[in-house]
Amino acid sequence: MLRKRLITTLLVCTAIAGMAAAAGTAAGSTAAEARLIGASSTAVPATPVRHIAILYLENQSFDSILGFWCGTHPARCPLGGMPSSVTLSNGAVATPRDNPDIVPIVGHNVKSQLIAMNIQNGVPKMNGWENMPAHQCNKASHYRCISGYLPRQEPNLTALAKGFAISDATFSLGDSPSWGGHLYAITSTLDGFLGDTPRSVRGVPSGEGWGCDSNKVTEWAARLGGAVQEVPACVPDPALTYKGAPLPNGGAFESTPVAFEPTILDELQAAGEPWTLYTGSCRHETIAPDGLKTCNHRSATRSYGWSMCPSIAECIYTESDHFAEPDQFLADAAAGHLPSFSVITPGANRVADSEHNGFSITAGDDWIGQIASAVMHSPEWSSTVLFIAWDDCGCFYDQVPPRINPDGTQEGPRVPLVIVSPYARPRFTDSTPTTYAGILAYIESTFGLRPLGPNDANAYPFTNAFNYSQAPLRPVPMVHRAVPSGDHIHWAQARQDT
Please, which pLDDT band fits residue 489 given cuts at 50, 70 and 90? Predict the structure, then answer.
């Protein structure tokens, strides 16, 4: 039995999906339009915020990014930063070290994250890091995952954390690498998926990326703790049509037991709020006679797998015109043309700026500076919030135990979060526990949208981190540094999450 959504959301989605299925025209456009019929929002609260942007980076824990900074700002880190020593589950004591510019390669799939958390009797002990597979965090590797970056290695992030607000109690919504982390960023759930990176199937020609147009599979369970099976890496939509006929398998390449899930993009569109995903894109889709899409090899920009839309059939079949490349965000901010909601993920020429394992932290911090500067100097600065977030732990050490989500799933390790806005409380740390669903809850509160499910309905939406009555904060200066000479980029790490 699939995890239960909120009754009101389920009824609305079911009714609207039924209308769309009955209509049936080309390319699923009726399905998208029908969802707007009867979709309503709650009253919009009084707030000056009209633009919410998320810079979604890769693979760092709170302690790896802000842990050493906490050592010089202990009052800003009530839940603790990087400790002076770490006692592991085998009794070994490791001394945290500062990382080189290139982010170390550390396993961070579902298995690795659960091993690192070392859950005993339902309680994460956060001390099993030495047992992660591939010997990537043992004594021989000098416990490379128990490490982080010094403030001088990330001056832009440090300046933003110092001047604006941070959260030291935001956790991954799930124990998953990037595919799952990017899925729940717009759905508030993994929809039964375990979250691991999708893989190709023998005998099935695969496409680029990891979503519905990739023809790849990943692990899924019908209920929490139930039997695991491999299914298409796609959230299907039975209401989709092509040339008047139902689109096969709701947009998946083969039959799938996975249920349809609404997204924050649906809610925004129903409310008339524009949105854009600044991300990798597929420039040419092969369309089969039955309407199913496959992203052509060599036609996708780099890191198309990190794009959020393709994993949602409704999005990739009816809303892919909401894509733009990451650099377009800089131009849109400068021109005062920011949409109501946007997410900037690594893609195209910005893949190496993601702070992913194997990439340069200097390049990542430069990109943070460019995005933050674009927002702070935009004509729309007075109505904008920028969340700087990371999709998973990477999986680097963090000491604070995560909790259980409202839908019963296990949260993943703590991740950094910085809130940049004229209305962010200056030099403030929000220590109320939450997950990425808290960002979705903030979006819903700002635009008067209904929650998608139990996780965002019950998430803390960073209420304490904002003061809309304060004198608006001014921009802080950002810097640009050259990537250290001789640094390499481990491109294979962008294609898989080990």
Answer: low
Query: In 350-460, which ranges are continuous DSSP H helix?
Result: 361-376, 437-447, 454-457
Start-to-end C-alpha separation, the chain: 30
As for how many domains the chain has, the answer is 1
Distances (CA, A) of 1 to 223, 227, 228: 5, 11, 13
Q: Range of 358's domain?
A: 42-84+151-239+247-495
Q: Is residue 32 in some structural domain?
A: no
Identify the residue whose tokens are 């420039």. 283
What is d(CA 193, CA 203) in angstroms, rounded to the nearest whole number? Answer: 23
Whether the bond between 395 and the residue before it is cis, its omega within 30 degrees of 0, is: yes
Predicted TM-score (pTM) of this structure? 0.90
CATH classification of the domain holding 413: 3.40.720.10
Number of Cα atoms under 13 Å in the Cβ half of residue 239: 26
Give residue for tokens 């832009």. 156
Residue 289 lies in a domain: yes
Q: Which residues touch 470 (CB under 8 Å, ≥6 apart)?
A: 423, 425, 426
Q: For the residues 65-82, what does the mean pLDDT come to?
A: 96
CA distances from 233 to 322, 415, 460 (A): 21, 25, 29
